[in-house]
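Data availability (excerpt). The following record was deposited with the supplementary files.
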Amino acid sequence: MSEQSMVVQRNKNAVAWLTINRPEAYNALSLECMQALIYHLKDIAKDRSVRAVVLSGSGKGFCAGHDLKEMTAEPSEALYQQTFSTCVELMQTIQQIPQPVIAKVHGIATAAGCQLVASCDLAYAADNTRFATPGVNIGLFCSTPMVALTRAVHRKQAMEMLLTGQMIMADKAQSIGLINAALAPEQLEEHVTEIAEQIAAKSSYTLKVGKEAFYRQADMEQAEAYAYCSQVMAENMLSEDAQEGIDAFLNKRQPCWKGR
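Predicted structure:
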C-alpha cells in the first residue's frame, strides 16, 4: 500500500475529510501511515479553500494505536525513537495547522488512537465507541498518549485510564472532556458534517488567529494570557475580515470573507 493510499482525502464545502485507510489493522499508526497523515495535514495547511478538517478511520474502528507488529518485527532503539518522534510531529501538526481538526470516532480509539482524539480540536463519537490507554497491560506505559490526555481531561481521570488500562465508553469519554459529544452511530456523520460546515463558513483568517491563540495561552499564567490575548484581539480587530464581519452584523447582512 502506498503512503498516499494509507490516508484518503476528499474535499467538500470547504471541509477536508481525511480517512485513515488501514482497516485490516484497525487503522494502526505505522510509520508510513503517520507520515502520510502529516503530509496531508501540512498540504491542507497551505490550502486557503479548506477551512475545517474531519479525521476518521475506515472499517470497524477509528484507530488502535501504534502498529505493534511493525515495531516488534525488527526491534531497535532507532526504530522506536523514529516512531515516537513521528507520532509527536503528527499530534503537534494537528494543533499547528490553521484549520480546526475534528475527530469523527467509531469502534475503538486506543493508545495512540486515543491520543489522536485528545489532540484534535474537537471530537465526536458514536455512543458505542470504546476508548483506552491500555499500554500498562502489556508493560508499556502510554507515556506519549499521556501528554495529550492530561491536557484534555482532569488529571485524576487521566491517571485512572493510564494506570488501569481499562476501556471507557463514549458517555464516560464525554463526561470527562475527551470528546464533545456521544451520538447514535446513525447520527454521527450528519452531526460532524453540520459542525464542520458551520465552522467552515467562518473567516479562515479568524479561525487561524483563534486556534493559534488558544494553544499558546493555555500554558501561560493568567495575567500573561490576558496580556497576550488582548494584543491578539487588537490585531484581529484591524483585519479586513473583522471589519467586514462587524459591518455585516451591524447592517444585518451576510459577511463576505477575504481570509485576511
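Summary of structural features: The beta strands are 7-12, 15-20, 52-57, 101-105, 108-110, 122-126, 130-132, 168-169, 181-183.
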